[in-house]
């Protein structure tokens, strides 16, 4: 699955409506529980382990893309 | 009802491969109580003749009664009162019946340090050998 597909699945959203600017603040589905689920699913799918401070810095979909790049994905 | 505060396992104490299981005998009383609680009086669960006419040996047990035992698994055994359940995926593979003994099993299969989330593979087995339900639960450890 792609990052966008995982995000859409966890948040229960249409993948076509997700872009770099999709944010926790503007997306009601991206609540605190779904945020943790999303991180956990990303770690499993891409076989990476994030640090707690990384998890806390994620505010937008673009942040997720950036974190994946820093982990070489 | 308030219970004394009980400490389950912490995230750090929880390891991949940790397992727990317990047995439950499904009684007529449980079945009836679940019918009242859920409000589901459909004939496949309440009328033996109807169930037999539809190819079952007897009225079939409620799938969601079985799933309620996952609450006991997580709350009392694994991790045992230190988590909240965020997600549950469950397949209902085969029917079960009043009088069956079911085993509810759980095993930690994934843990995320950054989120303190653990995935628990669950399996519900009828009469020691027949898997009637399986799936994955995701819990968030509170400490």
Automatic annotation (TrEMBL), chain A:
Signal peptide: none annotated. It comes from the Bacteria. PROSITE patterns: CARRIER. It comes from Candidatus Taylorbacteria bacterium RIFCSPHIGHO2_02_FULL_43_32b. InterPro entries: ACP-like_sf (IPR036736), PP-bd_ACP (IPR009081). This is Carrier domain-containing protein. Residues 1-72 form the Carrier domain.
UniProtKB/TrEMBL annotation, chain B:
It comes from the Bacteria. Coiled coil: none annotated. GO terms for biological process: fatty acid biosynthetic process. It holds the Pfam family MaoC_dehydratas. GO terms for molecular function: (3R)-hydroxyacyl-[acyl-carrier-protein] dehydratase activity. Residues 16-120 form the MaoC-like domain. Gene3D superfamilies: Hotdog Thioesterase (3.10.129.10). Signal peptide: none annotated. It comes from Candidatus Taylorbacteria bacterium RIFCSPHIGHO2_02_FULL_43_32b. This is MaoC-like domain-containing protein.
């Amino acid at each position: 699955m792609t990052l966008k597909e995982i995000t859409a699945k966890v948040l229960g959203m249409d993948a076509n409506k997700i872009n770099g600017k999709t944010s926790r603040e503007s997306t009601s589905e991206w609540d605190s529980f779904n945020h943790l689920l999303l991180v956990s699913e990303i770690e499993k799918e891409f076989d990476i382990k994030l640090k707690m401070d990384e998890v806390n810095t994620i505010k937008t979909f673009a942040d997720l893309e950036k974190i994946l790049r820093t982990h070489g994905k | 009802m308030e219970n004394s505060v009980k400490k389950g396992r912490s995230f750090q104490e929880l390891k991949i491969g940790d397992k727990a299981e317990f047995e439950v005998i499904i009684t007529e009383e449980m079945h009836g109580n679940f019918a009242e609680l859920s409000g589901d009086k459909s004939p496949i669960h309440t009328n033996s003749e109807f169930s037999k006419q539809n190819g079952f040996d007897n009225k079939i047990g409620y799938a969601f009664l079985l799933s309620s035992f996952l609450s006991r698994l997580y709350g009392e055994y694994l991790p045992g009162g230190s988590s909240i359940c965020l997600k549950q995926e469950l397949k209902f593979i085969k029917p079960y019946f009043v009088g069956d003994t079911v085993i509810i099993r759980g095993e930690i299969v994934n843990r995320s340090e950054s989120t303190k989330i653990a995935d628990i593979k669950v399996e519900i087995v009828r009469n020691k050998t027949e898997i009637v339900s399986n799936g994955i639960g995701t819990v968030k450890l509170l400490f």
